[in-house]
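PROTEIN DATA CARD
Card holder: Cof-like hydrolase
Chain length: 291
Origin: Brachybacterium nesterenkovii
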Amino acid sequence: MTDAFSRPDQTRPEPPRRCAVFLDFDGTYADHGAVPAAHAEAVQAVRANGHHVLLCTGRPLAILPPELAGTFDGLVTSAGARVDIDGQTLCDERIDPETARRAVAVLEEHGAAYCLESPEAMNVPERAMDLLRTRLTSLLGSADPDSPAAAGTRMIIDALTVPDDLAGCSFAKISIWDSPAGIRELAELVGPGLRALPNSITGDAARSGELQNARIDKADGVALVARHLGIDIADTVGAGDGMNDVGMLEAVGTAIGIEGSPAPVLAPADIIVPGPSRHGLVEAFTRIGLL
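Structure generated from the sequence above:
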């Protein structure tokens, strides 16, 4: 890793060729669901300079503010499982039905509070609905009901749905909000097909986390977009703060880490900048010549 953050005397690089920039949402572009005006303005300026900027998030489309689609050139969602750009859906990968059924059976057997995330819905067991609503309100809520963070919380809560048949749902990944068994143990019980990752929202790694499609990563979304746009991988830029960003940061030509992220996230970073509350992306874009 090149720790350019600790070297303020470093000369500013030359403006790059046409780039594709991939931004994680929570903790990178947005602060608790609220996008700083400085970040929104910086993204538009980078686009005006001829670069492509895409959101690259673990969130599914079902819980992304709809207005985001118009502020980016494309969306990589569900941790790389779905890619939308230029009015096209380039991929929409789901966990295979057999693995999905095994996962639901294991989660039900252990009494976990979980959500099956798809682009269309956030499917949860009825017994877990109250717990998820309470956790979301506590973790993402705001004292100001008119704040963007509060609006984001309401959007997620409104997306929670209790289906007739959880085992028959089609979904891209699983968020676990509370489980008597550890996340890695649950992944092992399900068997091949899923990988366990800590969750960047709940903050309780012992009892919560994510089960993701083992065949898909944000890096796959980056590669697919780069091919679609005809951009060399060396001319891609990624920014992220969570464990599901590691693959993306290792894959891109220039990796931006966020201060305070776990060590494995910062390891591949070429530069490290502050979080969204301190407008870190503005600094990053300036330092790498996008602004």
